[in-house]
Amino acid sequence: MQVRALGMNYVNIPIRGATIAPDQLGEFTAALTDSANYPMLVHCASANRVGAMFYLHRVIHEKADNATALSEGRAIGLKPTLEPALTKYLKDHQP
């Protein structure tokens, strides 16, 4: 695989539509916090899901305030159409 030939790890976390499962966020957080994965490129076709994953990671794992994390997620590519699903995710998966 070309990625490995360039000295990078490849982590694939398929996300379909607006549904993000806790195990997917867990895989994302594990990859993001593993220094062996740096430098890192995070990609999806629209950047919408990447922005969503960063937003959830920042709120849940880094305890960022919602407005800051939302602004960062939008800057990455999070689209307003996915935001209601993220609000529901936080409601359903936070203590």
Q: Provide mean pLDDT, rounded.
A: 92
The share of residues in helices is: 40-55%
Q: What string, H for helix and E for strand, traces the elements in order?
A: HHHHH
Low-confidence stretches: none
What portion of the residues fall into strands of 2 or more residues? Answer: under 5%
> Shape, please?
globular
Structural class: mainly alpha
Q: How many helices in DSSP terms? A: 5
Could you give the count of β-strands? Answer: 0
Number of domains: 1
Terminal-residue CA separation: 40 Å
The description of the largest β-sheet is:
none
Rg, nearest Å: 13 Å
Characterization of the model:
The protein has one domain (2-93). 54% of the residues lie in helices and 0% in strands. It has helices spanning 2-5, 22-33, 48-60, 66-76, 83-93. α3 runs antiparallel to α4. The chain is globular, with a radius of gyration of 13 Å. The termini are far apart.
Topology:
Blueprint: H1 2-5, H2 22-33, H3 48-60, H4 66-76, H5 83-93
Helix pairs in contact: 3-4
Please give a handful of descriptors for the protein shown.
about 55% helix, single chain, mainly alpha, about 100 residues
